[in-house]
Amino acid sequence: MSELLENTLLELEKTRSDFWNLDRYCANFLNILIKTKNAKNILEIGTSNGYSGLWILEALSYTKGKLTTIEFWEKRQSIARKNFALCFPNVEVEPKIGSALVVLEDLAIEIENKKREKFDFVFIDASKKEYLDYFLLVDKIIQKNALIVADNILSHKDKVQNYIDALMADKNYQSQILDIGSGMMFSIRK
């Protein structure tokens, strides 16, 4: 990890509670998963200030891939875009602003019209009550063997229980919840 990236991450960690970022342990785990899977086309739902995005981009600098990241709040994503450009000017990032549900529908149309490739890795860390709605759209835009990682599964279990139930019951997915950070659920499309 470069000194510039490490310093940027340390600065962002000072505001972790303000931006609800992943902890370093979980972010590093996400980074390792991306490298191990050799993921090249990643979708992040919930950019915030770019903390998790930086860990994703660090992995993509190895796999030579692209990050598409969605954030509702322009102010948050503008911070993220600056961090991305500073630390990874040569890794492709496509920031999207707006409701994740609307952006996901737009991405599905682009994929259907062969204007973009399906995603092979998805990280969900946005409005907890919409996780199931995100999944219903994400399911249409991911490849076979794609990995979906959802954060805050244990800390916000009451808000994401319908997501947990749907994935655990879906025969097209194999899922596991790990008690790390705020709780993460990993689901692979069979």
Provide a compact summary of the structure.
The protein has 190 residues and is α/β, with parallel strands linked by helices. It is 47% helix and 23% strand.
Please characterize this protein's 3D structure.
With 190 residues, this protein is α/β, with parallel strands linked by helices. The protein is built from eight helices and seven strands; from the N terminus they run H-H-H-E-H-E-H-E-H-E-H-E-H-E-E. It has helices at 3-13, 16-19, 24-37, 51-63, 74-87, 100-112, 131-138, 157-169, and strands spanning 41-45, 66-71, 92-97, 119-124, 142-150, 173-178, 184-189. The chain has a seven-stranded mixed sheet, sandwiched between helices. The N and C termini lie far apart (33 Å). The mean pLDDT is 95.
Class of secondary structure makeup: alpha/beta
Residue stretches low in confidence (pLDDT < 50, at least 5 long) are none
- The global form is globular
* SSE sequence, one letter per element: HHHEHEHEHEHEHEE
